Amino acid sequence: MRINRKKQLGKHAVISGIRMPQLRCTRVSESDILRRASLALCACFLFTAVFVGCGTEASDEPVDPNRLQVMASFYTMYDFAQKIGGEHVQVTCMVPSGTEPHDWEPSTKDITRMEQAEVFIYNGAGMEHWVSDVLAGLSNKKLISVEASQGVSLLRSAEEEDGHDHEAAHADEDEEDSHDHDDADAEDAVHEEDAADRVVAAAPDGHDAHEHGEYDPHVWLDPMNAKQEMQNICEAFSEADPEHRADYQANYEKWAKQLDELDKIYQMTLENLSERNIVVAHEAYGYLCRRYNLTQVSIEGMSPDSEPDPGRMADIIDFVRANNVRAIFFEELSGSRTAETVAAETGVKLLTLSPLEGLSDRQEETGGDYFSVMEENLQQLTEALR
Fold first, then answer.
1. What's the confidence (pLDDT) of residue 355?
2. Residue range 279-286: average pLDDT?
3. CA-to-CA distance for 151 and 227, rounded, in angstroms?
4. Which residues contact 255 (CB under 8 A, 6 or more apart)?
5. Distance between CA atoms of 2 and 122, rounded to whole angstroms?
6. Fewer C-beta within 10 Å: the chain N or C terminus?
């Protein structure tokens, strides 16, 4: 099944092989005129069909009433839904191919399709900042929505962590100034607050607790978290379509085993590498680093379009030079300007590392999916850390 996406005709595409005939006067009969008009009309229809199919407004895939209608917020959710649902589901990916999903918002057409859907799958943890408002406005009360990251232990974003540290420090100072007679109790309270801020937070229930930027949403880059997300999707499909519950469960078990194997390969490959620091453009790899005992140093913030200030850039350059960092990682979907700047200043190479928020054109052309991209990521990490 194909994702319902907008496809664009490449700007360099040409129609070749057309040779203009030489003009000459010829007596044409009425039958010849009709025949040629018919051929021209057929050619026109053929031309239109080809270019509408490859143009910017691709026609919608017809709804199959015999399959469960599923909307997935972005590529990874789409891929997981396809793997669990198999032939029993018809999945639409909401974020178009090649689009960075962090700041994307659904169109009126997307909302209309959600009104007709039976299951809506989204990651949560702040990835889709628009979800609460959209779900609250739907009249489709039969829609089963599944926050795939439910049950995953979430990491706070670096910006959120810094903010909490700053507030805790000021709270500590105020406490000392105003309550000198109770220093011991105040110190214990501050330590408890710091510990609460730094601990990996359990995923809160509901959507309001997942403020955009509060948590790192990229949970799927840890294969064990991906397994939890697939399990949640499996349960949602089984609820919506109990007739095929056994098939959904069998599909989950199949892919869960492959995730276990992927995890073992990562563990075996990365555990003996001497270098443990990865410098990345986008703060997206916290779960991967936590799982495999790596340290992420990000140039930009949680959103790949955030801009680091000159001080941050200088700190990153100093870190690269001081820690024998051999590569700077960038993402194909969001560009490499800041990564290129750091690489140019330090003389290290650039490598790609995908947060799996979408597929690049190259990955789409080769039939890429979650597993193939994760394997590519492992190859790139190995090259940078060995």
1. 95
2. 94
3. 11
4. 83, 84, 227, 230
5. 19
6. C
* Residue 328 three-state SS: strand
C-alpha dihedral (168, 212, 299, 315), degrees to nearest 10: -20
- Asked if 204 contacts 210 with a C-beta cutoff of 8 angstroms, the reply is yes
111-140 pLDDT tens trace: 999 999 999 999 999 999 999 999 999 999
The single residue listed with the structure tokens 């650039």 is 350
Percent of the chain at pLDDT exceeding 70: 69
Of 205, 101, 227, 203, the C-alpha closest to 155 is 203
E strand intervals along 54-110:
68-72, 89-93
How many residues in the chain? 386
Q: Determine the longest span between alpha carbons in the chain, in angstroms.
A: 113
Tens of pLDDT along 35-70? Answer: 554 444 444 333 333 333 222 233 367 899 999 999
The closest alpha carbon to 6, from 122, 108, 97, belongs to 97
- Rounded Cα distance between 173 and 51, Å, is 67
Find the DSSP H helices in the chain: 30-53, 75-85, 108-116, 131-137, 158-178, 183-198, 223-240, 245-270, 286-292, 310-322, 337-346, 361-365, 370-385
Cα–Cα nearest to 68, from 305, 301, 201, 248: 248
Please compute, for residue 164, the number of CA atoms within 13 A of its CA located in the half-sphere on the CB side.
18
For residues 123 and 146, the answer to whether their CB atoms sit within 8 Å is no
In this predicted structure, the answer to whether residue 185 has a pLDDT above a threshold of 70 is no
Tell me the one-letter amino acid at 114.
M
Judge whether residue 14 has pLDDT over 50. Answer: no
Q: What is the pTM of this model?
A: 0.74
